[in-house]
Amino acid sequence: MEMKPYAVPQISKDVYWVGVKDWNRRLFDALIPLPQGTTYNAYLVKGKEKSALIDTVNPGFEQELVGKIEQVMKPGDLDYLIMNHAEPDHAGSIPCIMELAKKATLVATEKGAKMAQVFYRVPQERIRTVKEGDTLDLGGKTLRFVDAPWLHWPETMFTYLVENKILFPCDFFGAHTAFGLYDDEVGELIPFAKRYFGEIMMPFRNMGKKAMEKVAGFQIDMIAPSHGPVYKNPERILEVYRSWTAGETRNKAIVVYVSMWGSTEKMIKIVVETLLSEGVEVCLYNVANADLGEIAKDLVDARAVVLGVPTVLGGMHPVGLHGANLVKALRPPLKYGVVVSSYGWGGGALKQAAEILGPTKIEVTGTLEINGPPSAEDQQKLIGIAKQLAAKIRE
Ligand code: FEO
Q1: Nearest-CA neighbor of 378 among 270, 273, 305, 262?
Q2: DSSP label at 171?
Q3: Residue 157 confidence (pLDDT)
Q4: Helices in 49-156 by DSSP H: which ranges?
Q5: CATH H-level, domain 10-245: superfamily
Q6: Is the pLDDT of residue 3 over 70?
Q7: Measured in angstroms, how far is the CA atom of residue 174 from the centroid of ligand 1?
Q8: Nearest residue (CA) to ligand 1, atom 3
Q9: Does the predicted TM-score (pTM) go above 0.85?
Q10: Burial, 44: exposed, middle or buried (Cβ in 10 Å; 0-12, 13-18, 19+)?
Q11: Residue 183 and which of 27, 268, 315, 343 are 20 to 30 A apart at CA?
């Protein structure tokens, strides 16, 4: 067998990392920037009798995955392929592995099994469905399955390797970075994990909380997610996830705005200066040039949002609309909001913003729509709106 120059670290006894690093990927889901690329982690567990591959890798990296498995065993001898999640970044190489390993059985939840048939054309007779608490004995290695739906698709599950005390939660606890293999090798890991949580898991944080309660009684020595480094120190990520899934917010406002000729920006600056003078932490993003991942990160624990968007063509400026839709879609734990807007000859942005924020749980504590740049009277109004918001944030 030809040996390829691949790194296949043994992360625990008879457990191998056979994932790949996508150093150059810069966008995920055609939406999320990836400044440090990402990883598609896959893990090979060798029992005395059987072997299991936990998740696969993004399409295009099949040969690298196969080459890594080859360093441990013949890929054709694989017994099980565990599919924790059906999204192509982890499941996209299933057809390749199932073709190579002719006797392998795909293991998934009932919903996952249906997706495997539709997305990856895996025949029903090659799939074993598992439910909460089911186990799979590999010979001295026991895989236990934990039903963990909606993290972040309906079919998701976790796999727990009982003897090694490793939790394989797929996307949950992940981070989009190709840097490092273990958590203690990456300096800025938690901000990357937070950004990832905001982008992927925040809309499902109640389901995340439930899943964490399920595994609270497990002894977990290692967390091996499908993106980013493996946690040798699981408490590091568990602690922040307890707070993030609980929707705990800080004395903090996130400002998301766009401005065409500077009038909306002048309004925003008055609000920002007032919030700062009232002791509120402020983070500010101009959607026209912001990294959406950073906005997602700061939405994880901000208590209030300030939205600034001018009227153009009778409604919200399209870039501001994108920002507002993002704030709504990610379902952050925001409690309060303020919307300010300037128009040239006719309003409309404020009405549209109210329609977007209306169905959310955000209490809009102040709005102001003005014609052109803010007058002295407008400035006083903006200071009042900001002071009122600061009082709400501090409550
Ligand atoms: Fe990383 Fe939902 O796939």
Answers
A1: 270
A2: T
A3: 98
A4: 62-70, 88-91, 94-100, 110-120
A5: Ribonuclease Z/Hydroxyacylglutathione hydrolase-like (3.60.15.10)
A6: no
A7: 9
A8: 87
A9: yes
A10: buried
A11: 27
